[in-house]
């Protein structure tokens, strides 16, 4: 349609020709662009470029060319006032910019009245005819490039959109006239492509979005006579009349990146792998190798596969290596991690079919206590070489990891915890195989097995608590924890299969060494018992000592070309420990009719401890004295121990003022399986009595403890039975009986220890003021050996009793001495018996006055009746008869 305000008709012939040339040009360029995979971006650029070139060639030709066209046109007006339909893409009715709007308004006015209104150029001032044509062409190029970025592909520039064609046009919009540019000139702007005539830089193929523009400054209000409104360009103008509805603008970001599409197409066949896409192209390229920087945390990353030609990528965190198809080496397997695949290493990738080595398997992860049972991870399998790779090397198997060491733990207030067993060493990975007909290829060697972990040490037992409440027993000592067993060594991996003709397989890996056992834990001592009080007369027993733990055994070595060595057993406890606690003393009282408290028994020693001493009996005023507590037994059951062991001593009996005294406690036995001595505990002494009656006797002494040696003790060691306790003394009653000595025994035929029976206790003395009898002496202990040492029986106790009218005590019998080993040449000596007691009676003497037979004075002479005087008198009588 013609522009309003002019009578000129459009030049249809030249416009149709231009459109034809333009269509052919666009078709050729567009087809080429689509073939290259970037038709979308270059297609839009081709339309704009063709339209710009056509406009420039038509409107910016030389004056001579314009004159020729004007002459041939016939009825056409001057070139400066030529008005015709808008060229394809020129967008004569589309608002490009404020400057182009001013130019269009000036051009329309000039077409209506050329003589009265001057033309307006791109800078808003009056311009010549030639400058007007040039400005319009430049402005058309600039505005098309930057004002139409969202035009759909294949949509002709300057034509209305589908929604605009369907929307009705109002008469008010058609009749709206342009505002004279001279009345309201455009805002001054910085030089642009439209003003300078320079072509703006081409847009990037990656980003086709136009640069941001200050639309409020550059786009003044226009009429709706244009086919593309400001709203269609997503431009907000002030004071614009209502326009027809427009479709939503198409975003440039929604268009796929053509460069990326081409790159992806190429990478499908040629290119190296990346962290996000580790596999290489199908034809040529290396697989991606992961590292600590590229492999995400907590992930197992497999190496990328190569193409037909290339190198496989290395795995990480136990991932497998990438393989190669035809030519290239396989990737190495990643080293194992404890938290994935049981700590196993990744397998190596396979080499190319015709050329390339197999990747080595990854090493296993070291065992960690509490994870996978502490076992070390197995090594990964080596990759195979190609079937036709004649000189290739197959991958070696990965080494198995060492098992984790067992932990040592202790628990407060209880026995020591057992040490955790060491983890098993991981098996070595198998070596990779070669092609059956690759006679020069070398098969991969198997990986070495990992060493077993060492067992953890047993925890030490804690000491028993000392009782604080009257009569309460002492706490038992804690047992030592057992040492953990050493882990088994891993087996070596099998070698890879060799070629069929040569039958040369890879070397089998060596076995791993077994782990060492953990040390045993030491025992704790028993706590002491509490003494009695008025509310609880008897003393508390001593706590028993704890036992030592057992040492852990060593692990077995793994199998292989060279088998692994067996582990060494853990150290046992050799020092004495775990002694029994002492018994508490009985309570002494002065209350009438209340007996003294009994002493508490001593606690037994553990397997390496001495027995605890018994507590003393409590004294009493009118009641009986309390008995002493028995000594605890001592024991050593470790043959490697050199310490002596002692039985606990019996407690003494309590005294009584007016009643019977308490008996002494027995001594504890001693047993030694090591190389030290065994000493039986001595019996406690009987208590003394000051009773006023014959029945108020003294206390008897306790028996001595037995001593036994079962180990291969040396000649410097001895087994001595405990001595019996002495009987108590009575002021008016019978004296106490001495305790028997303890027996001594050696059971080991290789032992050279000497043996001695215990000495019997001395009998107590009877009362002086009454007819109390003296106490008997205790018997000596027997001595017996099956070994090579000397033997001596115990000496019997002496009867030291004497009373005014009572019987004397008997002496104790001596101990026997016995040797059962027929090869022994040692002496055996029996013990001497104890001496009997003497009966001491008070002799009453009778004095009489006899007169002298002659002499001037009478003399008094006192002679005891039945004394020497009487005997002499009897002799004289006998002499006279003769």
Low-confidence stretches: 1-19, 32-245, 839-882
| Basic shape | elongated
Described by strand count, sense and barrel closure, the largest sheet is:
7 strands, mixed
Strand content: under 5%
Class per helix and strand makeup: little secondary structure
Taken in chain order, the helices and strands follow as: HHHHHHHHHHEEEEEEEEEEEEEH
Total helices: the number is 11
Query: Cα distance, first to last residue?
Result: 204 Å
How many beta-strand elements? 13
Enumerate the strands of the largest sheet in spatial order, edge to edge or round the barrel.
1-2-4-6-8-10-12
* Cα-atom radius of gyration: 61 Å
Helicity range of the residues?
A: 10-25%
Mean pLDDT: 71
Biased composition (Basic residues): 837-847, 870-882
Biased composition (Gly residues): 472-498, 508-556, 594-634, 722-742, 757-781, 790-815
Organism: Mycolicibacterium smegmatis (strain ATCC 700084 / mc(2)155) (Mycobacterium smegmatis)
Protein name: PE-PGRS family protein
Q: Can you put this structure into words, describing what you see?
A:
By secondary structure, the chain is low in regular secondary structure. About 15% of the residues lie in helices and about 5% in strands. Among the domains are: about 1-175, no CATH class; about 265-460 and about 480-515, no CATH class; about 670-690 and about 695-840, no CATH class. Residues about 1-20, about 30-245 and about 840-880 have low confidence and may be disordered. The termini are far apart. The protein is built from 11 helices and 13 strands. The protein is elongated, with a radius of gyration of 61 Å. Helix 2 (about 40-60) packs antiparallel against helix 5 (about 130-145). It has helices at about 10-35, 40-60, 65-75, 100-110, 130-145, 160-165, 170-175, 195, 215-220, 260-265, 870-880, and strands at about 610, 635, 645, 670, 680, 705-710, 720, 745, 755, 785, 790, 815-820, 830. The strands form 2 sheets. Strands 1-2-4-6-8-10-12 form a 7-stranded mixed beta sheet, with no helix packed on it.
């Amino acid at each position: 349609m013609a522009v309003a305000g002019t009578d000129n008709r459009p030049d249809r012939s030249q416009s149709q020709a231009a459109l034809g040339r333009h269509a052919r040009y666009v078709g050729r360029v567009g087809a080429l662009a689509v073939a290259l995979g970037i038709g979308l971006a270059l297609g839009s650029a081709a339309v704009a470029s063709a339209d710009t070139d056509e406009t420039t060639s038509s409107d910016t030709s030389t004056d001579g060319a314009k004159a020729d066209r004007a002459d041939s046109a016939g009825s056409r007006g001057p070139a400066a006032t030529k008005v015709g339909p808008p060229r394809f893409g020129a967008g004569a009715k589309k608002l490009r910019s404020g400057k182009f709007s001013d130019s269009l308004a000036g051009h329309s006015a000039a077409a209506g009245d050329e003589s009265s209104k001057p033309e307006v150029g791109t800078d808003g001032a009056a311009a010549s005819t030639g400058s007007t044509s040039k400005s319009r062409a430049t402005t058309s190029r600039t505005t098309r490039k930057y004002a139409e970025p969202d035009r759909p592909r294949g949509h002709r520039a300057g034509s209305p959109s589908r929604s605009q064609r369907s929307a009705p046009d109002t008469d008010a919009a058609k009749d709206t006239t342009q505002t004279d540019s001279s009345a309201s000139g455009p805002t001054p702007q910085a030089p642009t492509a439209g003003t300078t005539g320079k072509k703006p830089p081409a847009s990037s193929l990656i980003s086709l979005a136009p640069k941001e523009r200050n639309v409020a400054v550059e786009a003044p209000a226009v009429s709706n006579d244009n086919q593309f409104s400001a709203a269609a360009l997503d431009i907000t103008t002030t004071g614009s009349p209502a326009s027809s509805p427009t479709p939503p603008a198409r975003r440039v970001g929604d268009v796929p990146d053509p460069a990326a599409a081409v790159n992806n197409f190429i990478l499908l066949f040629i290119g190296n792998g990346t962290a996000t896409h580790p596999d290489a192209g199908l034809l040529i390229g290396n697989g991606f190798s992961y590292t600590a920087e590229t492999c995400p945390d907590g992930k197992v990353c497999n190496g990328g596969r190569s193409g037909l030609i290339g190198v496989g990528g290395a795995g990480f965190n136990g991932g497998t290596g990438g393989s190669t198809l035809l030519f290239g080496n396989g990737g190495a397997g990643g080293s194992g991690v404890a938290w994935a695949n049981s700590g196993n290493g990744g397998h190596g990738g396979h080499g190319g079919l015709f050329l390339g080595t197999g990747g080595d398997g990854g090493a296993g992860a070291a065992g960690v206590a509490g994870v996978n049972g502490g076992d070390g991870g197995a090594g990964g399998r080596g990759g195979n070489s190609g079937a036709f790779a004649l000189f290739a090397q197959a991958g070696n198997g990965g080494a198995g990891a060492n098992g984790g060491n067992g932990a040592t733990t202790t628990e407060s207030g209880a026995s020591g915890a057992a040490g955790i067993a060491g983890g098993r060493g991981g098996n070595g990975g198998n070596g990779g195989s070669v092609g059956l007909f690759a006679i020069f290829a070398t098969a991969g060697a198997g990986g070495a097995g990992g060493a077993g972990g060492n067992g953890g040490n047993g925890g030490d037992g804690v000491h028993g608590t000392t009782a604080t409440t009257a009569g309460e027993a002492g706490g038992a000592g804690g047992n030592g924890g057992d040492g953990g067993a050493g882990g088994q060594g891993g087996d070596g991996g099998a070698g890879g299969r060799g070629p069929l003709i040569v039958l040369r397989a890879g070397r089998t890996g060596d076995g791993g060494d077994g782990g060492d056992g953990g040390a045993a834990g030491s025992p704790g001592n028993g706590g002491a018992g509490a003494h009695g009080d008025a509310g609880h007369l008897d003393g508390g027993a001593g706590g028993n000592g704890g036992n030592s733990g057992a040492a852990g055994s060593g692990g077995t070595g793994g199998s292989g070309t060279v088998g692994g060595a067996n582990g060494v057993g853990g150290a046992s406890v050799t020092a004495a420990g775990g002694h029994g606690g002492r018994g508490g003393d009985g309570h002494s009282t002065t209350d009438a009719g209340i007996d003294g408290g009994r002493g508490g028994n001593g606690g037994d020693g553990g397997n390496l401890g001495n027995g605890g001493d018994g507590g003393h009996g409590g004294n009493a005023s009118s009641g009986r004295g309390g008995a002493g507590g028995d000594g605890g037994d001592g024991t050593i059951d470790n043959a490697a121990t050199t310490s002596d062991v002692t039985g606990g001593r019996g407690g003494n009996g309590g005294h009584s003022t007016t009643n019977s005294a308490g008996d002494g406690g027995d001594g504890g036995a001693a047993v030694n399986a090591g190389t030290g001595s065994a000493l039986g505990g001595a019996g406690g002494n009987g208590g003394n009595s000051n009773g006023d009656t014959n029945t108020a006797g003294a206390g008897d002494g306790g028996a001595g403890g037995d001593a036994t040696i079962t180990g291969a003790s040396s000649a410097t060691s001895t087994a001595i039975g405990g001595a019996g306790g002495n009987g108590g003394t009575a002021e008016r009653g019978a004296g106490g009986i001495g305790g028997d000595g303890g027996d001594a025994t050696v059971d080991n035929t290789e032992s050279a220890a000497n043996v001695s029976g215990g000495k019997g206790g001395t009998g107590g003395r009877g009362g002086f003021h009454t007819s109390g009898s003296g106490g008997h002496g205790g018997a000596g202990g027997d001595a017996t050996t099956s070994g090579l040492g000397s033997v001596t029986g115990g000496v019997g106790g002496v009867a030291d009793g004497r009373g005014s009218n009572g019987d004397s005590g008997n002496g104790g019998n001596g101990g026997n001495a016995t040797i059962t080993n027929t090869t022994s040449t040692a002496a055996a000596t029996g013990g001497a018996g104890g001496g009997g007691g003497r009966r001491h009676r008070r002799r009453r003497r009778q004095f009489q006055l006899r007169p002298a037979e002659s002499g001037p004075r009478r003399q008094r002479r006192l002679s005891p009746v039945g004394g020497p005087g009487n005997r002499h008198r009897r002799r004289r009588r006998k002499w006279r008869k003769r």
